[in-house]
Automatic annotation (TrEMBL):
Keyword set includes Membrane: yes
Keyword Membrane: yes
Name this polypeptide is given: EamA domain-containing protein
TM regions (residue ranges): 20-44, 50-70, 91-114, 126-145, 152-172, 178-196, 216-237, 243-265, 272-291, 297-316
Keyword annotations from UniProtKB, A to Z: Membrane, Transmembrane, Transmembrane helix
InterPro entries: EmrE-like
Length: 324
């Protein structure tokens, strides 16, 4: 983990960097592939979530070993827990708690997303695109909490995204697939809380490596506990032939969380999350290519409206502190 002697620099004083844009796009790709693999095969949502959590736990464990090796080389001896940022700097407690909240919200956001897939199997990509709305809520909350400006183009783009979500909601009600929309909206709310918590990690001074590892572990633990409480792992042996698709999908999704955490901590909440959450487009393309699944036309239109809002949002100047 990072050394506690590092002088953490407030976000507004950092030099501009476009690395967050790259990690947002990488998040889009890895999350899109991961969600496709999870939704492609007939697992129950809870067992699928447990397998995804295994993927999160594996990546968290690998990253723990990697950072331990780096720390040991830096110290010239075997690093212990007492050498970590968490142990040596009690001022990071708010950032640590925010990282835990990120993991918990990731767990329940993913679970409700998978429940939506199960309820409306022909519109999985559309349900994923709905999560783009979490950026609207996040950007508004961050505006009041951390004084980040919202330009006219960004406000207009968010409004168009909202209109696209309303189209999808109307289509879901008419077609009788309102359950998928409701699960998608609940997932949207969990991810909105997660996005704000990620920014709180950065404001709390915790380094991105420590934050990501805590996030991944608590997502995994939350997934195991949720599955145990709700289903008791009773359907495990009925799904032995396809469990590994969800497991591999979980690894992809864990990398997606890694990338999106970096993007939000070092970029701007609204644009970074909206780019990452257009993963539904990739998911719909993969569903069509491999399984010839065609989503309902009006929901596709709603998705296109959402993406149009994304384009308009990204055309505007990036958010800056109101104090600048």
């Amino acid at each position: 983990m990072a050394d506690s002697n590092i002088n953490y620099i407030p976000l507004d004083s950092k030099k501009p960097s476009n690395l967050w844009l790259l990690t947002s796009v990488l998040s889009l790709i890895t999350l899109g592939v991961g969600c496709f693999l999870v939704g492609a095969y007939p697992l129950t949502p809870y067992f699928g979530k447990a397998m995804v959590s295994c993927g999160f736990f594996l990546l968290a464990f690998i990253m723990t070993i990697y950072f331990w090796i780096l720390k040991s080389k830096q110290l010239g001896r075997c690093a212990t827990f007492s050498d970590t940022t968490i142990f040596k700097n009690s001022r990071l407690a708010p950032g640590i708690l925010s990282s835990v909240l990120v993991g918990i919200c990731n767990n329940f956001g993913n679970l409700t997303l998978f429940l939506g897939y199960s309820d409306d199997t022909s519109n999985k990509g559309v349900i994923s695109i709905m999560i783009v709305g979490s950026a609207i809520i996040s950007a508004i909350v961050v505006y009041f909490m951390y004084d980040e400006k919202l330009g006219l183009m960004q406000i207009g783009g968010m409004g168009i995204c909202t209109f696209g979500l309303l189209i999808i909601a109307y289509a879901s009600g008419v077609s009788g697939s309102l359950g998928g929309f409701i699960y998608g909206f609940i997932s949207l709310l969990f991810f909105a809380i997660r996005n704000v918590a990620i920014r709180s990690c950065e404001k709390g001074g915790i380094d991105v490596e420590t934050s990501i590892v805590i996030n991944l572990y608590f997502e995994a633990i939350g997934g195991f506990l949720t599955t145990l409480v709700v289903s008791g792992f009773m359907d495990v042996f009925n799904n032995m032939r396809t469990w590994y698709y969800s497991f591999i999908g979980g690894i992809f999704m864990a990398f997606g969380v890694l990338f999106v955490t970096h993007a939000v901590m070092f970029g701007k909440v609204g644009p970074a999350i909206i780019i990452a959450n257009t993963l539904g487009v990739l998911q719909m393309a993969l569903d069509y290519i491999f399984f010839a699944i065609e989503p309902e036309l009006i929901k596709v239109i709603g998705s296109i409206v959402c993406l149009l809002g994304v384009g308009i949002l990204l055309m505007g100047p990036q958010a800056k502190s109101k104090n600048n």
